């Protein structure tokens, strides 16, 4: 069963790009990654799903119900964490969370306490006095306190330190095990890879591909940059799996996909001054997708 | 109910300040009256010497200023100005502030419809306005009673307060409609205040120039003037009807536009 179904969703506003003709489904019980660079339309898509803004054309359903017509009803079961967290400044954390809970007809006080403990959040502080990371924690507790069936996260990890990110991911995995479906938007590939089953890649307002993470990883490649002490024959690294080989005096860079050992052996044979091996950033993944389509 | 209580709490401090302000306004006005009336010289003569244009600007009208009630009638214009400024700012900000403070991504992902949010917020604003009105009413009764020398003034004050309530609600929905229609609701409060000042100026210009009496339909400040309302004049039915139609129209505008527009997030 699909929890979210998006059909040809288009939102244009004024000069800014918006999104055009977006379609994808999120299945019950999966953690679905929604990935793309800043300004690609991730937030626009999510805000349309939440009927904060209305689509120019196309439609979307959540739990099988139209996301605009049944907005108040379906929002009972949605937890949302916006990319930038803004709350009523003059409130205490506790007051804000109680206010948030008062919209759902269930007692959330125990859950608030538990979540605050996991996220190491001081409930008695004023929202005003919180750092960005701590505000984000308030957002996380606020989004999860009513045990929603669908959790929508818009770049949730910005501002969180690595330890908190880890705890947060564990929390999400636990919710997922209990049956929650999660839509996870991000521009950081590694966190999506760590968490998600499937992923939709969006660029410039269009969906480029919807793929299983495992498939994506098989196609993944690494970026090598090697600085040697002496100039090398420029075809030294011209082996199978190497792409975009560039030799610039003593600096060699290329992309590699395949058995990593073959490259490592080649590197071991030469006298190197420095070595960088990186995961490709998103932009390069996109290039990869464009190339594949071309 | 939760939104209502939150709004009441949010506006509590400002409401207290406004109420103190209106109390001080009545005090300062009536103390001046005391000074005038005890000086022995009739203020009516004094005011008759002021050029007509200046009289219009200062709000002196045909009221008998030797009487406490007449003096209060003049003061009423300033109370009205305060009440409407409070109402128009309240109406605009209570709707616009969720977007201004970027809390709309919090409130509008809760299981409440936009209509319900508006209804609750307008109810909270209306309650604030009623309290403002009552504060003015009480301040006036207490202080005017002190200076009225046995003149029966309470019913005059009551009818003036009824007139004030009409204008308060009218300006509140002007504010809320602006906040609902405008794509950048941040500026709704300042535009609303601008409209209030313009209509107030228009009412003065009409006082200065009788030839443009016809324009009085365009400024609520001309709907229920103290000199017409007091001493048995009552509220003009025509203007009551006009006010009600305007209020209803602006309410519909508030709901319709706010429901179908994109929120600024």
Structure, described:
- The complex is a heterodimer of chains A (294) and B (265).
- Chain A is α/β, with parallel strands linked by helices and 294 residues long.
- Chain A folds into 2 domains: 2-217, Rossmann fold; 221-278, Alpha-Beta Plaits.
- Chain A is built from 10 helices and 14 strands.
- Chain B is built from 10 helices and no strands.
- Helix content of chain B is 75%, strand content 0%.
- With 265 residues, chain B is mainly alpha-helical.
- Chain B has one domain.
- Chain B is elongated, with a radius of gyration of 20 Å.
- The longest helix of chain B has 37 residues, at 2-38.
- The A-B interface holds A 13, 47, 50-54, 71-73, 75-76, 78, 80, 82, 84, 86-90, 99-100, 102-104, 142 and B 2, 6, 10, 101-106, 108-113, 116, 260, 262-263, 265.
Sketch the topology of chain A as an H/E string, one letter per element. EEEHEEHEHHHEHEHEEHEEEHEH
Number of separate helices of chain B: 10
Any idea what the radius of gyration of chain A is?
Answer: 22 Å
- For the record, the CATH class of the largest domain in chain A is Alpha Beta
Q: Name the average pLDDT of chain A.
A: 87
Distance between the termini of chain A: 34 Å
Low-confidence stretches of chain B: none
Please report the total strand number of chain B as a whole number: 0
Q: What percent strand of chain A?
A: 25-35%
Described by strand count, sense and barrel closure, the largest sheet of chain A is: 6 strands, mixed
Major sheet of chain A: order of its strands?
A: 6-7-8-3-9-10
What is the percentage of strand-forming residues of chain B? under 5%
- Major protein interface: A-B, 27 and 20 residues
Identify the overall geometry of chain A.
globular
Counting DSSP H or I runs of 4 or more residues, the number of helices of chain A is 10
Keywords:
A: 294 residues, alpha/beta, Rossmann fold, Alpha-Beta Plaits, 2 domains, six-stranded mixed sheet, four-stranded antiparallel sheet, globular, B: mainly alpha
């Amino acid at each position: 069963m699909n929890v979210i179904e998006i059909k040809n969703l288009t939102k244009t506003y004024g000069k800014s790009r918006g999104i055009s003709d977006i379609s994808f489904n999120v299945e019950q019980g999966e953690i679905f990654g929604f990935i793309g660079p800043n300004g690609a339309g991730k937030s626009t898509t999510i805000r349309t799903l939440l009927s904060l803004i209305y689509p120019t054309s196309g439609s979307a359903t959540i739990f099988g119900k139209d996301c605009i017509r049944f907005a108040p009803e379906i929002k009972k079961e949605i937890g949302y964490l916006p990319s930038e967290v803004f709350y009523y400044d003059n409130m205490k954390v506790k007051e804000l969370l109680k206010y948030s809970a008062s919209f759902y007809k269930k007692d959330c006080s125990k859950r608030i306490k538990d979540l605050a403990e996991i996220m190491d959040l001081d409930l008695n502080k004023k929202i005003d006095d919180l750092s960005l990371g701590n505000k984000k924690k308030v957002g996380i507790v606020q989004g999860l306190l009513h045990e929603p069936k669908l959790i929508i996260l818009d770049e949730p990890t910005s501002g969180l330190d690595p330890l908190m990110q880890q705890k947060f991911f564990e929390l999400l995995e636990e919710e997922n095990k209990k049956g929650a479906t999660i839509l996870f938007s991000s521009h950081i590939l590694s966190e999506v890879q760590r968490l998600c089953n499937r992923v939709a890649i969006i660029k410039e307002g269009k969906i480029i591909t919807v793929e299983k993470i495992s498939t994506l990883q098989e196609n993944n490649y690494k970026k090598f940059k090697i600085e040697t002490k002496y100039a090398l024959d420029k075809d030294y690294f011209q082996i199978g799996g190497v792409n975009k080989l560039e030799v610039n005096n003593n600096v060699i860079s290329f992309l590699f996909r395949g058995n990593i050992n073959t490259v490592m052996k080649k590197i071991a044979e030469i006298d190197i001054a420095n070595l960088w091996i990186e995961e490709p950033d998103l932009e390069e993944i996109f290039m990869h997708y464009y190339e594949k389509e071309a | 109910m939760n939104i209502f209580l939150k709004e009441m709490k949010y506006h509590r401090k400002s409401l207290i300040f406004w109420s103190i302000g209106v109390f001080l306004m009545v005090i300062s006005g009536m103390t001046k009256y005391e000074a005038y009336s005890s000086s022995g010289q009739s203020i009516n003569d004094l005011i008759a010497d002021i050029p007509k244009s200046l009289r219009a600007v200062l709000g002196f009208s045909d009221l008998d200023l030797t009487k406490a009630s007449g003096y209060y009638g003049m003061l009423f214009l300033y109370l009205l100005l305060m009440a409407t400024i409070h109402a128009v700012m309240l109406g605009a900000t209570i709707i616009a502030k969720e977007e201004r403070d970027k809390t709309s991504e919090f409130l509008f992902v809760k299981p409440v419809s936009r209509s319900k949010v508006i209804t609750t917020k307008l109810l909270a604003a209306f309650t604030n306005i009623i309290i403002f009105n009552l504060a003015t009413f009480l301040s006036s009764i207490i202080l005017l009673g002190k200076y009225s020398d046995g003149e029966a003034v309470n019913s005059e004050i009551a009818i003036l307060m009824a007139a004030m309530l009409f204008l308060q609600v009218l300006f509140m929905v002007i504010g809320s409609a602006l906040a609902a229609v405008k794509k950048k609701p941040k500026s709704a409060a300042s535009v609303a205040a601008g409209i209030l000042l313009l209509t107030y100026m228009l009412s003065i210009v009409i006082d200065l120039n009788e030839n443009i009496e016809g324009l009085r339909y365009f400024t609520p400040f001309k709907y229920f003037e103290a000199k017409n309302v007091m001493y048995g004049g009552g509220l003009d039915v025509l203007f009551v009807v006009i006010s009600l139609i305007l209020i209803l129209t602006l309410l519909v505008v508030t709901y319709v536009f706010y429901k179908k527009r994109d929120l600024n997030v």
